[in-house]
């Protein structure tokens, strides 16, 4: 259980950063908030992958990571829109 949480944190940091890089334009949210969105996306993505039966495969779980990344992109976009532009 602790290993899964630590893994989600590490993967969450990576996919949160990737989500920001993939989204066009400037996101007006902090790095810390991006990491939190990434961690939440990693946890929810793991649950979805488990339900779909693609969480535990041989080698790297590419489908699970893709689900997590898509959720992180949606999450970063949603948080950016909810916070509004401060220019």
UniProtKB/TrEMBL annotation:
Chief place of localization: membrane
Keywords per UniProt: Cell membrane, Membrane, Transmembrane, Transmembrane helix
Membrane-protein topology: Multi-pass membrane protein
Regions that span the bilayer: 6-23, 30-53, 65-82
Top-rank lineage group of the source organism: Bacteria
Subcellular location: Cell membrane
PANTHER family: UPF0410 PROTEIN YMGE
Family: Belongs to the UPF0410 family.
Protein name (record): GlsB/YeaQ/YmgE family stress response membrane protein
Organism: Microtetraspora fusca
Phylogenetic classification of the source organism: Bacteria, Bacillati, Actinomycetota, Actinomycetes, Streptosporangiales
């Amino acid at each position: 259980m602790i290993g899964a949480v630590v893994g989600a944190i590490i993967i969450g940091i990576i996919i949160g950063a990737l989500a920001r890089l993939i989204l066009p334009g400037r996101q007006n949210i902090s790095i810390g908030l991006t990491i939190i969105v990434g961690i939440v996306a990693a946890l929810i993505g793991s649950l979805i992958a488990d339900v779909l039966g693609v969480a535990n495969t041989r080698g790297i779980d590419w489908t699970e990571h893709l689900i997590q990344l898509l959720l992180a992109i949606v999450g970063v976009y949603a948080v950016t829109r909810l916070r509004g532009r401060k220019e």
